[in-house]
Specification:
178 residues; mainly alpha; Arp2/3 complex 21 kDa subunit ARPC3; 6 helices
Length: 178
């Protein structure tokens, strides 16, 4: 319980830090620390239901702070957590380069999902391909920042002392490899 609360607190703090960085950095060059925190939690958390709860709380926090369509970030962060949770079972994302590529790809999918939800539920808002070019710097910045955030979440969990947190590529020795 305290571990989950600590991650929620750190995730909300990350949203505040992101807001401060957004005033200093140009648009598209500020890392989405809330998204990366959910991604890091999904890559290492053991319980899917409790992890989805943490992702939902962090998503609703982003909804409240961003002023966007209420519930959009929460839904997408739950889906992001599930993608990361399932990807760690099939992919070795422990290295910096694979994690950076995965985070960049998930950033693109997340942004397209947010744009799609906003255009579906808001009248007069459509998909604008002119803004798609601004997505590339955001994906690169998130890719570069993802290993640092994942390291920070891992360090925090080590300090809180939980052996069940270790995730990564899970290989069942009884299952034949096809």
């Amino acid at each position: 319980m305290k571990r989950g609360l600590a991650l929620v607190a750190v995730g909300i703090l990350a949203l505040g830090v992101q807001g401060g960085l957004a005033t200093l950095l140009p648009r598209g060059y500020c890392p989405d620390l809330g998204l990366l925190a959910v991604l890091a939690i999904g890559l290492q958390w053991r319980g899917m239901a409790s992890g989805m709860g943490i992702a939902a709380v962090l998503g609703y926090s982003a909804d409240l702070l961003s002023g966007s369509l209420f519930g959009a970030h929460a839904l997408l962060r739950i889906l992001l957590f599930c993608c990361a949770y399932l990807a760690r079972r099939q992919l070795n994302l422990r290295g910096a380069v694979p994690l950076a590529v995965f985070a960049a790809g998930m950033t693109v999918l997340y942004s397209l999902g947010l744009l799609g939800l906003t255009s579906f539920f808001s009248a007069g808002v459509g998909l604008r391909w002119s803004e798609f070019g601004a997505l590339l710097p955001q994906a690169v910045v998130n890719g570069v920042t993802a290993p640092l955030v994942a390291w920070g979440v891992d360090w925090l969990w080590d300090k809180l002392g939980d052996d069940a947190f270790r995730g990564g590529l899970e290989i069942d020795p009884r299952r034949p490899v096809a």
